[in-house]
C-alpha cells in the first residue's frame, strides 16, 4: 500500500514490524489512541500484578490494520462526543463558530 494520509509504513523504524502477522502494518497509530480508554475495539489482554491491572496491547493489531482506519476514527469521534469539555473550551469553540 502506498503511504498517504490514511496509511504510513515506517519501515526505517528500529521496531518495525512491531506486531507479527500483519502483512501491511499501518504506523499512523503507532501509539494506540485507545490505550488509556476503557472501551477498546481491539483485543487487549489485562495483566493483574496484584496491586494494579495493566492493559497489554502486545498482541492487538487493530489500529495497525489498514482497513481499520475508518473504524479507528469513528471510535475516536464517539469517545470525544462523550467527553465533557471545560466551559472555557466550549466558549472558545462557540466564539470561533460565531465568527464564521
In words, what does this structure look like?
By secondary structure, the protein is an alpha+beta fold. Helix content is 27%, strand content 8%. Strands 1-2 form a two-stranded antiparallel ribbon. A hairpin with a 4-residue loop joins strand 1 and strand 2. The model has no long low-confidence stretch (mean pLDDT 85).
Quick structural gist:
This protein is an alpha+beta fold and 100 residues long. It is built from two helices and two strands; from the N terminus they run E-E-H-H. A hairpin with a 4-residue loop joins strand 1 and strand 2.
The fraction of residues in strands falls at 5-15%
Instruction: Give the SSE string.
Output: EEHH
Q: Overall mean pLDDT score?
A: 85
Dominant shape: flat
**Percent helix:** 25-40%
Radius of gyration: 17 Å
How many E strands? 2
Amino acid at each position: 500500500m502506498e503511504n498517504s494520509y490514511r496509511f504510513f509504513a515506517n519501515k526505517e523504524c528500529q521496531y518495525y514490524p512491531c506486531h507479527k502477522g500483519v502483512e501491511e502494518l499501518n504506523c499512523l497509530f503507532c501509539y494506540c489512541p485507545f490505550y488509556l480508554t476503557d472501551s477498546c475495539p481491539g483485543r487487549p489482554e489485562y495483566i493483574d500484578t496484584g496491586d494494579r491491572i495493566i492493559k497489554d496491547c502486545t498482541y492487538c493489531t487493530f489500529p495497525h490494520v489498514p482497513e481499520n482506519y475508518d473504524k479507528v476514527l469513528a471510535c475516536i469521534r464517539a469517545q470525544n462526543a462523550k467527553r465533557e469539555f471545560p466551559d472555557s473550551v466550549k466558549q472558545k469553540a462557540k466564539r470561533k463558530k460565531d465568527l464564521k
